[in-house]
Amino acid sequence: MYSLLLAVGFLLGGPLYVSAQCPDYADYSTQKHEPFSEGKYSLSYQRPSPSCRTFNSSDVEQTIQEMRDIIKDPDLYRLFENTFPNTLDTTISWKGFASGNAEEELTFITTGDIVAMWLRDSANQMRSYKPLLEANSSTDSLASLFRGAINLQARYLLTSPHCNAFQAPVESGKPPEDNSAADTDTVVPSYDKNFVFECKYELDSLSAFLQLSYDYYDKTQDSDFFGKFQWVKAIETVVTTAEQLLVGTYADDGHVNDSPYTFQRTTTSASETLLNKGAGSPVKGGTGLVRSAFRPSDDSTIFQLFIPANMMFSSYLGKSAAIMEKHDSDLAQRMSDLSASVRNGIETYGKVQHPTFGEIYAYEIDGFGSSNLMDDANVPSLLSAPIIDYVDASDSTYQSTRKFVLSTSDPYYMHGPVLNGTGGPHVGPGKAWPMSIIVSLLSSDDDNEIISGLRQIVSSTNELGLIHESVDTFNAAQWTRQWFSWANGLFGQLLLDLKDRKPGILSTSFQA
Ligand SMILES: *[C@@H]1O[C@H](CO)[C@@H](O)[C@H](O)[C@H]1NC(C)=O
Ligand SMILES: *[C@@H]1O[C@H](CO)[C@@H](O)[C@H](O)[C@H]1NC(C)=O
Ligand SMILES: *[C@@H]1O[C@H](CO)[C@@H](O)[C@H](O)[C@H]1NC(C)=O
After folding, report:
1. Which of 105, 166, 330, 333 has the fewest CB atoms below 10 angstroms from its CB?
2. Minimum CA distance residue for ligand 3 atom 5
3. What are the backbone angles phi and psi of residue 196, rounded to the nearest 5°?
4. Which Pfam families match (predicted)?
């Protein structure tokens, strides 16, 4: 059960820590640990002991203490106390400097139970600490973690802009993780398995780098940082990659265009490979929308003009253009132009008329007139459109879309006595994802909806006190992924958001 973890980190030029006998959190998070919370759900304490935590932040510890007086329900507080620090406690797998530049910080952040860094997960794992982020040049600060994540993502994207998950940097001395699921993958452009863990092209991965950059800049105004290392070049790669993915399947004269990316896997699951020899369903060019072969669930798209990722891309490309202005004004202009044309594509082609809900955003379209009306829990989702700063939550098309998504008209809406929310084909029908409930509360102004959602989350952790990937809507003991750092961080982010927006709700009791 307990593996001997001999973690020897060389940070600041010396050994950071040598810890023996730290439990493997993948096992630890499947068991209950005392002291249990004193409410009716008797939730486990799930923080590793201080010497086994992967990063210490006094700001995070202080916030955990402050929230003790604000969150009145003992079970809800326990869930906050476990989840908010989970990324720092368990997933900062390595932090150090680039071998080529002693000032270039690098942060390798794993997803939790999988030892690889996803561009999307790591950007969101960091985002949960955005409320506490401020300018700070110390390598012990949250700001340093952000800088290290931005620098490492830039390195990944410069080499493999179509890939979604990556190996530890060579400087860490950690060997590449074997990904047997990818053994049969045939991917164009090709990639190096010592550098890349998986190479599913997802537009939201490119957007995640932009979001992470914007989040850091938004709170620190640290413009100089972006000019120091490889950020400008990485953004140029992101923009060029996206521009190449504006192409449709057919040229004007009828020839078939080369697909900028193809992926095939030997699999029994339809969502793990792409049809048409790895190119995906035909796409009509000229919509202004950028193709995405896969979704943020890492499942393949049915139609490649995937609206939520286009929303996220347009949103953070536009915001990051302001950072670029000081470094390369031509590139900043290219970013603003592309951001505007993607938004125009979404507003022109991405909306459909639904017989019950009126005008709503489609999840995916092909540009020929077909659309896929659904939502999936993973962010970016349609439900998350205000969270990714694309649209205000009061927008009428968003509100109609939200009603559709949270209704039985959405093919991936799951309901039952345990919890109600969206899921997706990644885990399959019958399993709602707590992440979707968290997103519905982050985008809600309705106190009853927020209280009902918090009750569903706090009552459905199977006493483990962590946010699971999915939970069976009829049986809380049937869940997936015991250690999903992004979902944990997102829950912490929700409670900090409610502290500012709806403090009264945090004095609600969930014991009845
Ligand atoms: C965090 O602090 C504890 C002491 O409270 C220490 O044992 C541990 O090594 C620190 N972790 C890191 C990554 O510095
Ligand atoms: C910077 O961060 C470090 C580590 O969290 C902290 O000790 C220090 O007080 C911070 N400095 C400022 C100026 O906030
Ligand atoms: C889910 O929604 C249904 C109505 O659609 C409601 O009866 C049920 O109580 C809800 N489940 C939870 C756990 O709130």
Report:
1. 330
2. 415
3. -115, 135
4. Glyco_hydro_125
Determine the distance from the C-alpha atom of residue 50 to the mean position of all C-alpha atoms in its chain, rounded to a whole number: 26
Q: Distance (Å, rounded) from C-alpha 249 to C-alpha 131?
A: 43
- Whether 153 is in the pocket of ligand 3, judged by its Cβ within 6 Å, is no
Residue 300's closest CA among 321, 276, 320, 284? Answer: 276
What is the amino acid identity at position 76? L
492 Cα: distance to centroid of ligand 2 (angstroms): 22
Q: Which ligand has an atom closest to residue 451 CA?
A: 3
Considering the chain, what is the average pLDDT of its residues?
Answer: 95
Ligand 1 pocket test: pick from 55, 56, 91 the residue with the most ligand atoms within 8 Å of its Cβ. Answer: 56
Question: How remote is the CA of residue 189 from the centroid of ligand 2, in Å?
Answer: 43
* DSSP string covering 171-185: GGTPPPPP-GGGTT-
Distance 140 CA to ligand 2 centre (A): 7
| Contacts for 77 with CB less than 8 Å, ≥ 6 apart | 37, 67, 68, 71
Position 231 scores a pLDDT of 98
- Write phi, then psi, for 505 (nearest 5 degrees): -65, -30
Beta sheet of 364-365, edge-to-edge order: 305-306, 364-365, 371-372
Q: What percent of the chain has pLDDT over 70?
A: 96
